Amino acid sequence: MLNEQAGEMTSALAARDGGRFWHAIVVCLIVVAVFVPTRSLYYFVRDTLGNHWRRWLSERLLGRYFHNQRFYELTSNDTVDNPDQRIAEDVNTFTQRSLYFLLIGLGSLMQLVAFSWVLWSISHTLVYVLVAYTALGTWLTVKVFGAPLMRLNFFQLKREADFRFSLVRVRENAESIAFYRGEQAELKQVRGRFKGALRNYQRLLRQQLNLNFFQQAYNQIAIILPNVLIANLVLSGELEVGQAIKAAGAFLAVLGAVSIIIDNFEGLSRFTAGIERIHGLMAALPAQPGESADAPEAEPAPLPRRRRTIQTSEAPELSLQGVTLNTPDGKRELVRGLSFTLQRGDGLLIVGESGSGKSSLLRAIAGLWRAGEGSIQRPPVADSMFLPQRPYMQVGSLRSQLLYPQFDRDVDDAVLLGALQEVNLPDLAERSGGLDAEVDWAKTLSLGEQQRLAFARVLISAPRFVILDEATSALDTANERRLYQRLLAEGATLISIAHRSAVLEHHTHVLELTGGGRWKLHEAEAYAFDDGTASGQRAPAKDAAPGQADAWPGPARMASA
Ligand SMILES: Nc1ncnc2c1ncn2[C@@H]1O[C@H](COP(=O)(O)OP(=O)(O)OP(=O)(O)O)[C@@H](O)[C@H]1O
Predict the structure, then answer these.
(1) 234 and 106 in one domain?
(2) Keyword Transport: yes or no (predicted)?
(3) 468-493: per-residue pLDDT in tens?
(4) 551 is a domain residue
(5) In terms of pTM, does the model score above 0.90?
(6) Which residues, in sequence order, are bridge partners of residue 373?
(7) Cβ contact 385:467 at 8 Å
(8) Which of 71, 432, 454, 506 could be a cystine partner for 391, CB 3.0 to 4.6 Å?
(9) Would you tell me how many other CB atoms lie within 10 Å of the CB of residue 185?
């Protein structure tokens, strides 16, 4: 309408018609009065909608990411780079940009409808030229610049995420790096990532420069083109000057509408790269049960090919049957044909050289590693607890540490303080400002204190089954003995990894991994722990031939599978 009135005003002035001119001005003002609030609300509504959409999509991805330890699998097998960046940033860009492009697409459509008939009524030739001109322009843009720009944008997102992650790693490991005086090595690595991002960006800029050359030429020629085409009509007096201005305006408006791909190609290629990254993540995170049917059912990710997997199921006691465990890449066999059953109150100590597969066996028991064959029955997750050597400390209150991972349980303060007392941290609550004060525990507690705090978690949730991976390595023997005795008094079944002979007394059996997939089972009393401190002969143990399930000597409380 504004274009219409602009033409009207010029024609009125050319004809020296004051009434016609002022009428056009009034119509213009009315149009502006409607246009201004509409246009302002447009941005508000668009971005609010984008925000809602982001919340919906991020919630869905977060749900899938944290479902069934998928975050662990994704991080371990590296099928999807930087999932955090995809969830936090790519989703945001995707939702914002989708609406942006949808709305400018709709706007272009309206513009096309509004101006096409104006143009058609003035000159058919202009319409034909316009169609040919934009078809050629779009084809050239997509063909010549499409694929390279999309690829470069995909890598740009990845490189930026790698760069940021290298800085996050430095922050997370600041103390170790400072002790090593590793700043130069870190700086080199961070710079390397940064340079990678810059280099890719430079390539991107070069591609964009070519695209800009093309876009500029395309747009400037479009300004001259309609004038050249209708000049003769005006000169011969067939067309009023105002009509010519209207025609040129309509030509540019229709051109703008149909050139949407050419004009927005840089943004569109970034947008497409982002979609590819979100799609990759969704494909690696299959829909969870309970997600509504309208959710796009993602194809399961092409996980690394595994010919065989260990079957896991829940049972009151832990039992392994013919378990052969491989590393996730399938390259190494860590344990072959292992079978045993632990009865309630049993304690199994796993020993073996570094790298022999002790922690990996615990990963398999916890259901995190599945490459291999055989079956594992284990107590339900709610009845078990895992204590790693370096306990995970969430940033939060002392109460949430003690209840972790069941943060919403309601437990009396007296129970929490009692547990702290028992693990020999009687003044921790007081010195850190009470049970509800928020502290970065991983930074403020020593490793031994963190291990004791993790033990307090076990005492509070009193699981029937406890797995300890060198969980007492930073404690003195007296503390260690007290904590183990406390667990045994609860009647817990224990599986431990330890390098110190002192822990042997708390266990009933020993599983020795001797390398190359071989293993031996011993009764604890008959086992002489060789940690360089204990003396004495090793008790004879029956060697288990790999793959033989009946190699277990059959102790009183631990049943052979
Ligand atoms: N994600 C992985 N992919 C492939 N191999 C792995 C992976 N994680 C560990 N390994 C390999 O599996 C082997 C067993 O590792 P594991 O951590 O179980 O050893 P460990 O006996 O607990 O050693 P330590 O006593 O030093 O803690 C090692 O050789 C290790 O390099």
Answers:
(1) yes
(2) yes
(3) 988 888 777 888 888 888 888 888 89
(4) no
(5) no
(6) 324
(7) yes
(8) 454
(9) 11
